[in-house]
Amino acid sequence: MTTATLIDGKRVAQDVQQQTAARVEKLKQAVGVTACLATVLVGEDPASAKYVAAKRRLCEKLGLASVFVKLDETTTTEQLVDKINELGRDANVHGILLQHPVPKQIDERAAFEAIPAQKDVDGVTFHSFGTMFYGLPGYESCTPGGIIRLLDAYDVDIRGKHAVVIGRSAILGKPMAGLLLNRDATVTVCHSRTVDLPELVKQADIVVAAVGKPAFVQGDWIKDGAVVIDAGFNPGPKGNIGDVDFEPASERAGLITPVPGGVGPMTLAVLVEQTSIAAARQAGVEI
Amino acid sequence: MTTATLIDGKRVAQDVQQQTAARVEKLKQAVGVTACLATVLVGEDPASAKYVAAKRRLCEKLGLASVFVKLDETTTTEQLVDKINELGRDANVHGILLQHPVPKQIDERAAFEAIPAQKDVDGVTFHSFGTMFYGLPGYESCTPGGIIRLLDAYDVDIRGKHAVVIGRSAILGKPMAGLLLNRDATVTVCHSRTVDLPELVKQADIVVAAVGKPAFVQGDWIKDGAVVIDAGFNPGPKGNIGDVDFEPASERAGLITPVPGGVGPMTLAVLVEQTSIAAARQAGVEI
């Protein structure tokens, strides 16, 4: 029996998309600028190609332009950096997304760092990481940024709450910790080396599971009334499932994200939102 | 009665200084390059002037060159950035330290970001913050970097331990969290908004107090045998004291830093160490 309130990520993502479409339209009206996202795909990974296609479709749906750059599997770091530099100089491009992962011969960090901070709408540069941790204006990693928007949409009071983040990846666990810290949560970051994870999760007012293991977080680890955010998306026997064992967790949680339909839809929504904001800022317009 | 073993920061700092002097000498012998730190002081704050003077004296003692740039209280952001850019281009300067704080009219972040990553031996740029959090080669914030060196010098096993960092400042609490996380600690960051701080500190295998309040951390918050690192340095009735109530804490801790003579000496030692490493890297020499 589910007693927790479900966090409807599809609905919140729709709201973010609508605001984005409105901002894009206003910017066109105001200064004739069409917000534009450049997507860069290196190699032939089918999942990556699918993700990039979804990003481009969403741009089209919301009135943004998009530029698609497809590079060979054998691309070198230098070639990729050159291409990103070119997009960085292109005044018609407002945001740059380099699809992760890139082929092994490429220094992905060097490629990310070639993205100018003002076009880093995917929040992957050290600069963006810094602004996320220091609470300064900038662009957020899209999934953690989306999680903050979910918490806000459901009026979760973050200040002073104990947030336990399970996972410490560069695009999820670590930036999530920074964003929660800057919203005045007490933040614990757990990972594969953590001893007695259940005991730590039991203390959490807010749990963010970003560990990439299906149904890993057990229901009896969840404190009564806690907010449970599941950023996992793992292949399961009947479709994808999250990192949290949903049914038992939802009997204890106050609020919980389903998988799918929770965190998932937010990532793309934040990407296009940040692209529209970047376009407005680069046009020098307050919208 | 003190039962904890005292961590002798003076001794560890001496070791780091000796290694630094040896590296500096080797670099001179190998390629005729003298490692050089540029210190930039803006305005008339007497404490800042004293800190900069101490840094320059240590450079001299260990065989490093130093360049001292003194700018007026009325310096603009643009003037300061220009000066830092000039030092960034100067091949004879290997490390740049901008003394914090700068006068109010200056955008300190913009000034920090003007320091090239390869000369950021004080670890203040977003780039350095990123490398600290991602565990990539780079330069560390000197005080947190010094604390890691203290833990290593006393063979503290960080992996899997629960570290509680009290404080979330840009140069101490936040980078400390990143460095501990990359050494596989489970990390909790607490701060002024944290509810039930004693309960969290009681769980810590490693406590880092960086809160700036004299004798704030109480002895009975310390778990038996914990490692207690006190980064505080507050004016007290009989000289400066730390953030930890030393006597009662030392009855429970396994290892503890005194104040003074614990963390304090490490900050300068790491600054010159990182300058010597930067000089070697910029000269393309493995030393």
UniProtKB/TrEMBL annotation, chains A, B:
CDD domains: NAD_bind_m-THF_DH_Cyclohyd
Pathway: One-carbon metabolism; tetrahydrofolate interconversion
Pfam family of the protein (one): THF_DHG_CYH
Keywords noted in UniProt: Amino-acid biosynthesis, Histidine biosynthesis, Hydrolase, Methionine biosynthesis, Multifunctional enzyme, NADP, One-carbon metabolism, Oxidoreductase, Purine biosynthesis
Catalyzed chemical reaction(s): (6R)-5,10-methenyltetrahydrofolate + H2O = (6R)-10-formyltetrahydrofolate + H(+); (6R)-5,10-methylene-5,6,7,8-tetrahydrofolate + NADP(+) = (6R)-5,10-methenyltetrahydrofolate + NADPH
Domain Tetrahydrofolate dehydrogenase/cyclohydrolase catalytic: 7-122
InterPro entries the UniProt entry points to: Aminoacid_DH-like_N_sf, NAD(P)-bd_dom_sf, THF_DH/CycHdrlase, THF_DH/CycHdrlase_cat_dom, THF_DH/CycHdrlase_NAD-bd_dom
Positions of the Tetrahydrofolate dehydrogenase/cyclohydrolase NAD(P)-binding domain: 141-282
Binding of NADP(+), residues: G167, R168, S169
Superkingdom, taxonomy of origin: Bacteria
Enzyme Commission number(s) from the entry: 1.5.1.5, 3.5.4.9
Quaternary structure and interacting proteins, as annotated: Homodimer.
Family statement: Belongs to the tetrahydrofolate dehydrogenase/cyclohydrolase family.
Described purpose of this protein according to its UniProt entry: Catalyzes the oxidation of 5,10-methylenetetrahydrofolate to 5,10-methenyltetrahydrofolate and then the hydrolysis of 5,10-methenyltetrahydrofolate to 10-formyltetrahydrofolate.
HAMAP family, sorted: THF_DHG_CYH
Protein name: Bifunctional protein FolD
